[in-house]
Amino acid sequence: MFGVDATEAGVGADAALTFMKHDLAGMRSAARKHMWTGDAGTARWTAEQIEVELPRGKRTFSLSQLIDKDHDRYTVRAWHWSRPVADSVAYAAMKSGTLPEPTQLADAAPTDPELEDAVHAAFASHAGYVAALSTRADAFSFGSAGETMQGEKVKQAFQRMNAEFSLHDGVRVEQVGTDLAWAVANVDFKNKAGTETFRVLAVFVHEGGAWKIALGHWSNGFPIRGAP
User: Which CATH number applies to 13-219: 1.10.10.10, 1.20.120.530, 3.10.450.50, 3.30.70.890?
Assistant: First the structure.
């Protein structure tokens, strides 16, 4: 799971609580602005925009999760908590060399070699990621600047990007059920402005004989000079 800061990458409930206590210190109020959901079998992915009033002012957070029902109990399997950053601010930080380097991720492979190959192919190139995107109606994507895309518009938006993707380090993959999995990776995004490394959570569903991305969440890690 990922928290707001570039150093916040961990596993388990304790990590999530630690990240949120840090990111929401002094919270005065919180209100959900928007929410999107999708489901496959007993599992559901959710994406939310939440406005939080902190001592330093109001901030918008993006939260995505994969939640699975197991023996009548709902469990959060994967979680990404971030704050949007305007592209101009992120590019300025990148050019000045102050954009934080995300915590390095180690490989954690699933037992299904087809799933492992599909995840690596999706994160290894722009064409691979576009090919892996599902066009199902409840597919969803958070962009690093807070953009929201749903359904076939996700694939259309990524097709228009003039950029190249590559894996920055390892990939952690976990299969939740026969037709469901999640993966996290640090992905290098290179365009004419330069190269940024994004933290990415993706929920994969097996449909039409292939593993496809039903939920994607891209973010920059804080602190970022110029971002509120």
Answer: 3.10.450.50
Q: What is the pLDDT of residues 155-184, one digit of tens each?
A: 999 999 999 999 999 999 999 989 999 999
| C-alpha to C-alpha distance for 42 and 154, rounded to whole angstroms | 24
CA distance 98 to 27: 27
Q: What is the pTM of this model?
A: 0.95
Cα separation, 200 vs 162, whole angstroms: 18
Domain ranges in the chain are 13-219
CA 177: distance to chain centroid? 20
User: What is each CA distance from 152 to 127, 155, 164, 214, in whole angstroms?
Assistant: 16, 6, 21, 10
Give the model's confidence band at 50: pLDDT under 50 very low, under 70 low, under 90 confident, else very high.
very high
Angle at 216 between CA 149 and CA 31, to 5 degrees: 70
